[in-house]
User: Fold these one by one.
Assistant:
Number 1:
Amino acid sequence: MVSYAPLHLRVTTPQIELVGATDHLLEKLEPIVRTGKASAEPAPYDDPMSLYEEDPEIRVVKWLQSVWRGRGIVTADFWRLNLIVMLNNKPVGMQDVIGDHFNTYGTVGTFSWLSSDVRQRGIGSEIRQAALHLAFDGLDAREATSEAFIDNLGSNGVSRRLGYKENGVTWASRHGEPALMQRWRLTREDWLPHRRSDIEMYGVASTRKVLRK
């Protein structure tokens, strides 16, 4: 494996692991994207979104390109940690942690998707908790934000259970049609009562050095 710190990052819980999105793991995750198992109904993603592409070949190409762009565009003002969700040593989705003007505001956003095979088993909540642990304990974030369409009951339910506060609504489009999104905000103070003692992190110090360059 190449010596690029974010690719060696790992966050573990008793149920899952979040690991850096190496090309080797992306190749193993590719069949889920190709077969459309990364999407859901009602449509959960705002435009533009590679996972909405109808042609499986184009879908995979655009998805990979988006991950590679996130890997390459890392500055002190913006970075995106692409992490692959491992369940029973198999890749089943992705959980991203995004810092936009992080050095100024200390705010991270999160984005995730799971294969349709493993949904409704509490994995969505588990990977969000792992991402928040990385953000607050590992990267010293001040707050975390999330957004989901109003009818995305799963994502909104996770935010509510983990202590996020509603933070207004906004319009976004999906498949070219307008739809309302619920915004959520979680401060470090509101996260602390939910902090878990069974989450471990590896490779954080070296990753922080990359994100601050």
Number 2:
Amino acid sequence: MKADENMETINHTKKGYFMMAVLWLAYVTFAMNWVAGSSLTPQITETFFGGPVDPIISQLVNYSITTARVFANILAAIVLMKLGPRKAAGTAIGLLMMGLVAIYLPNYWAYTVARMVMAVGGSMVIVYMNPIVAHYVKNSKTKLRINAANTVAYNAGAFIVAVLFTVFAKQMVANWRVTLTFFASLTILFFIGWLWKAENFETKETGEKTESYGYKDALKDGFLWRYGLAFASFLTLYVLSLVSFKAIFDQYTLLNGSVTNLLISGFGILGTFAGISIGNKGVPRKPTLLFSGIVMVGTFALAIVFANKIPLLSYTLISISGFAMYIQYPIFLNLPHELKGMTPQRLTIMFGLFWAIAYAGQTIATIIWSFILGSSGYTPAMIFFIAASSLYIFLVATFPETRQREAAARKAA
């Protein structure tokens, strides 16, 4: 009897890990599809418009993707409650396949809408990773490692694309439809895998007291607004540097855009593991975020300054920026968990609005950047870009210190 129970537990755990792996790979594929599409923007606009277009139009797909992600978190929660984890996540992976449909639509506007639907699926996938990890993984150390792997999923996809666009540059841009079809088709495999093995389970916790923290309370929460806007500033640097700057660097500087993508994503992966190590040591959060934020923005600004003078120095500075960028990621996203009196319900509400604020702010900043680029040129656009990214540093300085005990212990020692 006991042997049967143990076998059942082992099978249950294996199924859970399979589900986590499918979602992780699906999100990596989403990142590959997004970054590859952005890298191929000149070829795509050439096909649909017959020549170069205004930067605002060429970046429209990126605006639509980030706009879709503003609403996707709230939509994900609603779909999860209505359908349960198996059908909800299956729906999300199914929406990712719109990236394949988009490639063969007749005009740029239909292509943009289909990619927007793909983005909704991608954002829902990353949301559904959390309840599945919580349900199947009970060991706290294992859970931390899995959550860390989930945070680096986008970087993994971006890194793969950067390697391919660096090593096989001519082949990748020869036919954008063939290239994107390759990336988007992988989603079909994960959709089939999900339907084959995924199981449903109850996501509601029983026996917990309800908390009197709702969306109205969250909207009045000053920390949440500072937190969300700080991440909007962070995303402005991160998303533009990975998604939009390949074509910009290729056009305006001596830098190779594929190489910069490779360096940011590759060193970002290394930075994530460094951030996990630093975070687990219980060091004070605010000084860590401030220092790494200053390094992140400062080195990227210097990289832009030397981009047409000393490319090798710029590449080095971009690598440092990517590393510093992702040292912060696991520490930054864990801050609400460390706030006094935090509850699961409050976390759910806070993160739903947090992602909406962050992506809305980043989308607005990107639109302004594109407008300046089209109307005033490269230099004013990059000055705005660095200014918008610097807002992160000033907002982090207003955060509460969530590691007071550790900081006090260090002083006493």
Number 3:
Amino acid sequence: MLPYGRQSISESDVEAVAEVLRGDWLTTGPAVGRFEEELARWTGGVPCVSVTSGTAALHVAYVAAGVRTGDEVVTSPLTFVATAATAALLGARVVFADVQPDTGNLDPEAVAALVTPRTRAVTAVDYAGHPADYDELRALCDPAGAVLVADAAHSIGSAYKDRPVGSLADLTTFSFFPTKTVTTAEGGAVAAADPEMLRRALRFRNHGLVRDPAEQREPDTGGWHQEVHEFGLNYRLPDVLCALGLAQLGRLGRFRERRSELVARYDALLRDVPGLTLPVQRAYVRPSRHLYPVRILAGRRREVYDRMRAAGIGVQVNYLPAYLHPVFGDLGYRRGLCPRAEEFYAEELSLPLFADLTDAQQDRVVDTLAGILG
């Protein structure tokens, strides 16, 4: 089965991991800092905190933003459920705003109608790797005193108006799952420009431990002493995985170039295929595509999905609108809440896209899809 996404592992990746395994530090060692410093090169210098997954990154970001019980978090429904679930687990009320019909990204006009004095955060999702409209969202957040969060699980290496993803929001989260552009097997990160948000993120990912005597309440206990002032969790990404991520970041430029080539080929080869809408790109955005999401028209998405997979091509659907999961239905969310997101979902199909996809494999995808729709 040709997958819709997969990791690209080289011998340099293997050697980087092996070097750590031969050393003294498997976790909480020097590879963690090196990985975070290298990642910050891709965020325009914004400091980064590595964590155990993209979901952990969202949890850490919401804690750093000060999200608490009774707050509201406005976000897109067209995302993996973790974007909303991590806010709900902190006691926030998740408010879903509809998406733009072409990009699938959060619609600033829809957000404007939903921001209230209780809005603590607005979380944009860079769907498929295309950055959201951050200037418009910033103009809504700042007057409301809301924190702007970017779920950039799809968009590492992308740029918006010549500014890198990671520098556009108050907090940015990344995912390094194997299907993403860069992988640490499992892993994620939070980028935070504000020193206080960065401090909260660092502390929360390490049990909330306070080790600096200057910040402790009983600093003279002894050199072993550490304190917890606010609860945290163990979200530390170990050196073994950071070593893999560091090696992967060294190839991010090449990953982006190859994905761009494949996107351009899809655009050209599928342009005249009937019953198909291709993804769009804003003129002011330079996306690093994680997905190539086409839309299958005339109610044929299920048929096309089944026939493509029967042909050995592992297409995927991204995503069931988050509020349509039963857990949100049990909380009172109902179908019809965001009609554009639901329409997008009903037609969306992600075609294979990953750095090691060959032209011949891509031609097979195109020929099979065109044969079904032709």
